[in-house]
Specification:
Elements: H1 6-15, E1 27-32, E2 44-45, H2 48-55, E3 61-63, E4 71-73, E5 78-92, H3 99-104, E6 111-116, E7 118-128, H4 134-140, H5 151-155, H6 163-169, H7 174-183, E8 187-189, E9 192-194, H8 198-215, E10 222-223, H9 224-231, H10 237-247, E11 248-252, E12 258-262, H11 264-276, E13 282-283, H12 284-294, E14 310-313, E15 320-323, H13 333-343, H14 349-356, H15 366-373, E16 374-379, E17 382-387
Parallel strand pairs: 1-6, 2-7
Antiparallel strand pairs: 3-4, 4-5, 5-7, 8-9, 10-12, 11-12, 13-15, 14-15, 16-17
């Protein structure tokens, strides 16, 4: 391409009826380079925090299988990726100087000849989103761990997953995945992440609670060493420690001995699930009586321990309770609300909150979610919510 002279630039300004005195003295003359093809370059708009990650030498990873919408992950956050179109052509010009840089550089050449290396009509826009973690539990529940003597485990043809496998399959950051593995009480067995089969988990918990009762240990001070010695002949020692970690808080006393403070609410919740999973519906008053009799001595059962696990039907006579686990509901917002409104036409905010709390985006409230996906009305002086659309 021919190189423009200053005279040609001035003539162009005059034709365009522009006053050179109102413009910067330096002029960029652009031409397309030999490699300036479309589609070879992608623009990604990053917030300052993500720019700092890259500048510090850390990586950003795009995750998603072919049938999934791509997300971008830093070490601890997840972002939706969406293409944003722009009405102006975006040009990639290596070494291009901004007006501020030209003002600061008085020695700038009067005419700067630059080659366009590429162009784009859109860019990728990032929006912070909830990590897509429901798939994590689903994968691990394909093959729950039933114990070292299980014939099913030895003959299983299901895949098992390492940390690296989960990082390639789950659309979430590494920290979010590792945190969720703790939340769902997964454990590593022979290098693979596993979830305990619920019956096996209850068997382990029963061993521990019976030992606590027989030894008259306070629930706030259960010794690890004694548990391993007493129960090690019944189950693998690492499984005993895992169940203590799942249902207790580990700490070390002044003498350096390891103890666990057992979580009363979590133990009561697990026993309630065990009772409810074998019945479609349970008479509420009968359930509360059996539940209290089933938990370790010294523990007190309360219905608020069952948030997101079971639902009380106060409209039936007598009142009933049934299992409804939040992890079994759809992950998509609209599908979640549709599912809940099929179960119950009208919900109070207290009842529905445990089943939609996990849908809240950063800085979003349950009230904002209800405003978007439900319609409120008054029923016998109580505010209730029903679907905004017909539910089939």
């Amino acid at each position: 391409a021919a190189v423009r002279s200053r005279a040609e630039v001035d003539a162009t300004l005059q034709t365009a009826k522009l006053n050179p005195a109102e413009l910067l003295p330096a002029v960029h003359c652009l031409s397309f380079g030999p490699q300036a093809g479309g589609g070879e370059c992608c623009l990604l708009q990053l917030e300052p925090g993500l720019c700092a990650e890259l500048e510090a030498g850390r990586s950003l990873v795009i995750r998603g299988e072919k049938d999934e919408h791509a997300v971008l992950c830093s070490k601890d956050k997840t972002y939706d990726m969406k293409i944003a179109d722009t009405s102006n052509m975006l040009l990639f010009v290596p070494g291009c100087k901004t007006p501020e840089e030209l003002n600061a550089d008085q020695a700038s050449c009067n005419i700067i000849h630059s080659q366009i290396a590429g162009f784009s009509k859109n860019y990728w826009e990032l929006r912070r989103c909830r990590p897509k973690l429901r798939k994590l539990r689903k994968l691990l529940m394909e093959d729950p761990y039933e114990g070292p003597d299980s014939q099913k485990d030895q003959a299983s043809t299901f895949s098992k997953y390492t940390t690296e496998d989960l990082l390639s399959l789950i659309q979430a950051s590494e920290e979010e995945i590792l945190h969720q593995l703790q939340v769902i009480d997964a454990c590593k067995i022979e290098g693979y992440w596993r979830i305990l089969d619920f019956d096996y988990e209850m068997k382990l918990l029963n061993h521990v609670t019976q030992l606590i009762d027989s030894e008259s240990w306070p629930l706030s001070k259960v010794p690890l060493c004694a548990c391993l010695e007493e129960l090690g002949s019944l189950e693998p020692r690492e499984m005993i420690e895992h169940i203590l970690l799942s249902y207790g808080r580990k700490y070390v006393d002044d003498a350096g001995e390891v103890f666990f403070e057992m979580h009363e609410d979590k133990i009561c919740r697990a026993i309630a699930q065990m009772l409810l999973q074998n019945a479609v519906k349970f008479n509420l008053s009968e359930f509360e009586e059996v539940w209290q009799q089933s938990v370790p001595e010294g523990m007190t059962t309360r219905l608020d321990q069952l948030q997101g696990l079971a639902l009380v039907d106060k409209s039936s006579r007598p009142e009933t309770i049934f299992l409804l686990k939040v992890e079994d509901l759809p992950e998509d917002n609209q599908e979640r609300f549709n599912s809940l409104f099929r179960i119950r036409e009208k919900w109070t905010e207290v009842d529905i909150t445990p089943y939609i709390q996990d849908l809240c985006a950063e800085k979003q409230t349950v009230g904002a979610l209800l405003t978007k996906y439900a319609r409120s009305s008054m029923l016998n002086g109580v505010k209730v919510y029903n679907s905004r659309r017909p539910i089939s």
